[in-house]
Amino acid sequence: MSSTDGQHGYTVTHQAQPPASYDTYMGQIILSCFSFWCCGWLFGGVAFVFAMLAVDSAKKGDREKGDKLGKYSYILSAVGIVFGIIMFSVIIGINASASK
Predict the structure, then answer these.
(1) Which of residues 8 and 92 earns the better pLDDT score?
(2) By the 8 A CB rule, do 28 and 74 touch?
(3) Taking 60 as the threshold, does the pLDDT of residue 22 lie above it?
(4) Which of 23, 90, 77, 21 is nearest to 50 (CA)?
(5) What rounded mean pLDDT belongs to the chain?
(6) DSSP labels, the chain
(7) Quick one: average pLDDT of 13-37?
(8) Which of 6, 9, 45, 91 sits most deeply, having the most CB atoms within 10 A of its CB?
(9) Which of 21, 29, 37 is nearest to 70 (CA)?
């Protein structure tokens, strides 16, 4: 939609916003990166791959597949974070008991 004001000579243009349901899977990407860098590369790396596949599927129009892959990415990231917390707790516990 455009309109021109003859007195001032300017044009106002209105651009449509993307649909509200558009999802970039940014949450999955950020969580998988956090899991990769802070808790272990295995789960975080695989979760990142699933997040990228979800983005690719959504861009191709296969929204259902993208949502499923995004869900797998969340699950793997969560498992990686829990595994990392357990691993760090065990290491701290072993170091604390060895120093006594």
Answers:
(1) 92
(2) yes
(3) no
(4) 77
(5) 84
(6) -EEEETTTTEEEE--PPPPTT----HHHHHHHHHIIIII-HHHHHHHHHHHHHHHHHHHTT-HHHHHHHHHHHHHHHHHHHHHHHHHHHHHHHHHHHHT-
(7) 75
(8) 45
(9) 29
